[in-house]
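User: Can you recover a sequence for this backbone? Please restate the input before giving your answer.

Assistant: Of course. Working from this structure:
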């Protein structure tokens, strides 16, 4: 198959890297891609939201399958637009609403008996403020629309909650995405990402993973798109996985059926494990970033074939999809992210970092006069696999120590939450 990957992040580089190993994949393109995808696919300079240009490229090049990496083109209806043009891996806009509207998602969860935090919705600033003033407690304040993972504020006091509300509704930090807010009860537990490929009927689970959303060590500081992830996470044992499948994934798929939503692609459940019970924080309609990096590092099936099967509504049973190892991805970010940061800084040491078997997935990078320079907040995802989580972590950080660019910043504690508690780790 000729395959076009849409996007330019670490997730897309990791997908491309895995597709290179996939027997059903022949030629790969990435639009617009980054310096990493440039080395293993042909980058095409098309904006993922320029649907007309994408369709022309697909028709001119003879693309068989398009894999949509980020949520924005899915929310804007790329799968609807390309229906009948080629195979599309990713849901149509009706399904993508599960991510693009927090209100739709929360109501969908309620309608379908999926356990989630109590919430209230406000489109009036005064009423939202009054609610917070009158109901002290720990609230999570969320912009209703898409905000690149940054429109959520987990607060600890009324003052913090009102500050967050102001950022969303008064400063309009996320534009129109913040014209409505969801105010949600704060859940305390361990977060886990459970991601499946679905054809609308059955599904193929990825290894359960754990992201690290806060910018600083020990989960301090504001939320980012994700500062590192590992898989598989020992927080999800066989029994819990069965519950997640039954109580969350299968209920969602049944819900899509009932609501006449033809959902094909990724269904990503962002879970909080509260006292051993899975509680859903959010659904996403695409792969996780950076969860995809460790997942792809451990995958050994025919990814292109499975994605094409999902896009055609004919998933079957696939055996032997995963290496029996652990993978850890540590994100190297530009200093200042998720706030303001500089771009265009030369990156040194990627080759040295890969010498011990680690893979450096590019995210915000670009080639400038033959040199790889920074071009985004999350710059690289240094990913390593090993027989134990501890060794995978060590290998990833050893590799990362070879890399440098002006302002480089990364967390030092990726996977530590479980390294401390896992007794019978493989
Ligand atoms: P969301 O985009 O809704 O998943 O929120 C982004 C992040 O905010 C999540 O990954 C959690 O770390 C945090 N978060 C969201 N909702 C809650 C909640 N109800 N309780 C605690 N943390 C939350
Ligand atoms: N890593 C979180 C996300 O992809 O939404």
């Amino acid at each position: 198959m000729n395959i076009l990957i849409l996007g330019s992040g670490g997730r897309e580089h990791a997908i491309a890297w895995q597709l290179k190993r996939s027997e059903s994949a022949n030629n790969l393109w990435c639009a617009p891609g980054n310096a990493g995808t440039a080395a293993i696919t042909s980058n095409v300079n098309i904006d993922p939201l320029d649907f007309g240009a994408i369709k022309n490229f697909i028709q001119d090049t003879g693309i068989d399958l398009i894999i949509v990496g980020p949520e924005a083109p899915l929310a804007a209806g790329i799968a609807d637009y390309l229906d009948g043009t080629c195979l599309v891996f990713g849901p149509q806009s009706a399904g993508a609403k599960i991510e693009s509207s927090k209100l739709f998602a929360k109501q969908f969860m309620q309608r379908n008996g999926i356990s989630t935090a109590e919430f209230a919705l406000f489109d009036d600033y005064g009423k939202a403020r009054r609610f917070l003033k009158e109901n002290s407690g720990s609230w999570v304040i969320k912009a209703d629309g898409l905000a690149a993972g940054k429109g959520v504020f987990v607060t600890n006091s009324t003052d913090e909650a009102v500050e967050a509300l102001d950022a969303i509704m008064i400063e309009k930090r996320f534009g129109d995405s913040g014209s409505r807010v969801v105010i949600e009860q704060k859940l305390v537990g361990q977060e886990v990402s459970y991601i499946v490929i679905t054809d609308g009927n059955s599904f193929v689970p990825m290894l359960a993973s754990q992201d690290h959303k806060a910018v600083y060590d020990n989960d301090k500081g504001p939320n980012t798109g994700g500062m590192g992830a590992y898989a598989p996470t020992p927080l999800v044992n066989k029994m819990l996985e069965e519950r997640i499948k039954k109580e969350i994934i299968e209920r969602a798929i049944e819900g899509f059926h009932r609501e006449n939503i033809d959902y094909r692609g990724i269904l990503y459940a962002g879970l909080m494990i509260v006292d051993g019970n899975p509680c859903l924080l959010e659904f996403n309609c695409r792969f996780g970033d950076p969860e995809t990096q460790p997942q792809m590092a451990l995958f050994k099936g025919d990814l292109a074939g499975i994605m094409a099967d999902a896009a055609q509504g004919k998933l079957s049973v696939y055996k032997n999809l995963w290496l029996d190892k652990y993978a850890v991805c540590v994100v190297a970010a530009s200093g200042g992210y998720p706030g303001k940061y500089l771009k265009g800084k030369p990156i040194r040491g990627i080759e040295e970092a890969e010498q011990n078997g680690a893979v450096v997935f590019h995210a915000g990078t670009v080639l400038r006069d033959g040199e790889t320079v920074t071009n985004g907040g999350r710059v690289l995802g240094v990913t390593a696999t090993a027989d134990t989580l501890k060794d995978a972590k060590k290998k990833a950080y050893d590799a990362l120590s070879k890399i440098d660019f002006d302002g480089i910043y990364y967390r030092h504690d990726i996977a530590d939450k479980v390294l401390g508690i896992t007794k019978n780790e493989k």
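That completes the design. Residues 422-426 have pLDDT under 50 and may be disordered.
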